[in-house]
């Protein structure tokens, strides 16, 4: 199994999600990880925003 497959098993992939902003994408990711892995959605969204603010 390759590295990407380990990070993105089918349960961590959501298709056809209608979002209107980056904030909504991060909120959906937070909800996904909260429901599937018990990680508080605020932790996920806050860390995604923090990473995004670092730039590339």
TrEMBL record:
<dbReference type="InterPro" id="IPR016152">
    <property type="entry name" value="PTrfase/Anion_transptr"/>
</dbReference>
<feature type="domain" description="PTS EIIA type-2">
    <location>
        <begin position="6"/>
        <end position="56"/>
    </location>
</feature>
<dbReference type="InterPro" id="IPR002178">
    <property type="entry name" value="PTS_EIIA_type-2_dom"/>
</dbReference>
<protein>
    <submittedName>
        <fullName>ORF90 protein</fullName>
    </submittedName>
</protein>
